[in-house]
Specification:
46% of the residues lie in helices and 2% in strands. It is mostly helical and 339 residues long. Helix 2 runs antiparallel to helix 4 (117-130) and helix 8 crosses helix 14. The radius of gyration is 20 Å and the shape is globular. It starts with a helix and ends in a 22-residue tail after the last helix. 2-acetamido-2-deoxy-beta-D-glucopyranose binds next to helix 7.
Length: 339
């Protein structure tokens, strides 16, 4: 049984891997071709050694600060991972979610439960002391999300660096980030625009193995699902009752993973098989024919989850990045564009 799944998955893995590695591989170049057209995708210019000379202590600074904050408040780990996703989801990983003024992404309705801005600000201040005008806010957030994952018990991966910070950030765009009531088609379409496949969708949704949601995001499922005046019928009745007692106020929090909310594991996927997904979008990944078999596979394959999570996080971190000399900027303060 297991083998069938694993073998069936091999082409998927190959495809997922090829789209990262293959993207960076130059096609056969004719020796005499003279006007050299920039054929590589922007993400191909990112590199783990990008700041090796210009800011050798960068990852040390980030690690030290993330570690200190997560030790004090473990809920900071999932919040940073989510903040990174929301950055990359809109205009690519360009730090645009961090910009803080009326009308920016951060001011959007969809951004109100985002956290972790102060941690990124503190890291940036120390990085500016040690390596002025060198490291982008987008890169800091990307590496912080990796460190947060490791601290939560998840996998490690090398972070490619070299993103530029964007100068544009619009509230109305931020509201396009999936909120939990979308169908799988619209999730797949959204991920596709980030260069992400259904494998990335299923695997990155596994971030919901830690962290929490405000009750505001789930209350329609509990009381008035899609205007029916009834709860979502695909939810386990006991779990439904538990959520109703935990969600007496919209501002209350509930765990995204009902069984092991602090542990980075495959319980999130196992719960989906027991009708215990918190968000409607989580539960739909199990029932939809395009994603369901991968959910079941991962529920039984923790090693696959860990290794593919690392791969998919690199991919989302490469989404629509700016790397060109004349693109974007190295922001001095993550909250504001440079003058
Ligand atoms: C597939 C589409 C996704 C949807 C619909 C979705 C939706 C949500 C919602 C509604 C919340 C709770 C927000 C609130 O507090 O009310 C949440 C939390 C979270 N999301 Fe997602 N998400 C998605 C994908 C992702 C991805 C790709 C990642 C990471 C790569 C991610 C990481 C997280 C984390 C870690 C939390 C917990 C945040 C915390 O505890 O502060 N999500 N998500
Ligand atoms: C999925 O949602 C989109 C956007 O709301 C909608 O246009 C589409 O009809 C829905 N598709 C299905 C299959 O329900």
């Amino acid at each position: 049984m297991r083998w069938v799944f694993v073998v069936a998955l091999l082409p998927l893995l190959a495809a997922a891997t090829a789209s990262i590695v293959g993207g960076a591989k130059p096609k056969a170049v004719k020796p005499q071709a003279k006007p050299r057209v920039a054929a590589l995708p922007a993400a191909a210019y990112l590199s783990p050694t990008y700041y090796m000379k210009s800011c050798p202590n960068l990852e040390g600074i980030i690690h030290q600060k993330v570690n200190a904050w997560v030790k004090k408040d473990y809920t900071m780990a999932p919040s940073i991972i989510r903040l990174h996703f929301h950055d990359c989801a809109i205009r690519g990983c360009d730090g645009s979610i961090l910009l803080n003024y009326p009308g920016s992404e951060r001011a959007a309705e969809a951004s109100q439960s985002l956290r972790g801005f102060a941690l990124i600000q503190e890291i940036k201040a120390e990085v500016e002391r040690q390596c002025p005008k060198t490291v982008s806010c987008a890169d800091i957030l990307t590496a912080a999300a990796r460190d947060a994952t490791v601290l939560a018990g998840g996998p490690f991966w090398e972070v490619p660096f070299g993103r530029k910070d964007g100068r544009i950030s619009l509230s109305k765009e931020a509201n396009a980030v999936p909120q939990g009531h979308e169908n799988v088609t619209s999730l797949l379409n959204f991920f596709d625009k980030l260069g992400l496949t259904f494998v990335d969708l299923v695997v990155l949704s596994g971030s919901h193995t830690i962290g929490r949601s405000t009750c505001a995001s789930v209350k329609q499922r509990l009381y008035n699902f899609q205007g029916t005046g009834k709860p979502d019928p695909t939810m386990d009745p006991k779990y439904l009752n538990l959520l109703k007692t935990e969600c007496r106020f919209d501002t209350n929090y509930v765990a995204l993973d009902a069984t092991t909310p602090r542990t980075f594991d495959v319980a999130y996927y196992q719960n989906l098989g027991k009708k215990m997904g918190l968000l409607s979008t989580d539960q739909l990944l199990y029932s939809d024919s395009r994603t369901g078999s991968l959910v079941s596979l991962i529920a039984a394959q923790p090693d696959f989850f860990f290794s593919q999570f690392a791969v998919s996080m690199v991919k989302v971190g490469n989404a629509n990045v700016m790397t060109g000399k004349n693109q974007g900027e190295i922001r001095l303060n993550c909250n504001y564009v440079n003058h």
